[in-house]
């Protein structure tokens, strides 16, 4: 993911390269990107990352424009500043509650939209946003 600017606001740009792929691999990558776009487009929850837009007309890549997580992922925080989370029960509970709320929202979606299974929940796919009460986790990567 890279930071970019769209209409004067900083956003995240997730690029999926199609270079050097076979026709079958390319088709699967495009299907996966479309699935993620369709899933994110219809989801609105305080613990789910927001899709801002998508770029599908570039020959060698597909891109998703997402809200930018100022603190990156939970994995990045745990690797770079573990003392901000490890052993601090209020922060751990807030993060766990937010992650659980996002997952509960996905699993409670009524048909035909849901239930929606994440399939890759891990600290690298939990993005951290600011709030007055501390970091807010948002689930990402629905490919």
How many helical stretches? 3
Number of strand elements: 6
The SS-based structural class is alpha+beta
Order of helices and strands: EEHEEHHEE
Biggest beta sheet summary: 4 strands, antiparallel
Mean pLDDT: 89
In order across it, which strands form the biggest sheet? 1-2-4-3
The separation of the N and C termini measures 14 Å
Query: Which residues sit in consecutive blocks of at least 5 with pLDDT less than 50?
Result: none
Radius of gyration, CA atoms, in whole angstroms = 16 Å
What is the share of helical residues?
A: 25-40%
Amount of beta strand: 15-25%
Shape: globular
Could you list some keywords that capture this structure?
143 residues; alpha+beta; globular; two-stranded antiparallel sheet; 3 helices; 6 strands; single chain
Topology (SSEs and partners):
Blueprint: E1 2-6, E2 9-17, H1 23-41, E3 51-55, E4 61-67, H2 74-80, H3 89-108, E5 126-129, E6 136-139
Antiparallel strand pairs: 1-2, 2-4, 3-4, 5-6
Give a nutshell description of this structure:
The chain has 3 helices and 6 strands. It is of the alpha+beta class and 143 residues long. It has a 4-stranded antiparallel sheet with strand order 1-2-4-3, covered by helices on one side. Strands 5-6 form a two-stranded antiparallel sheet.
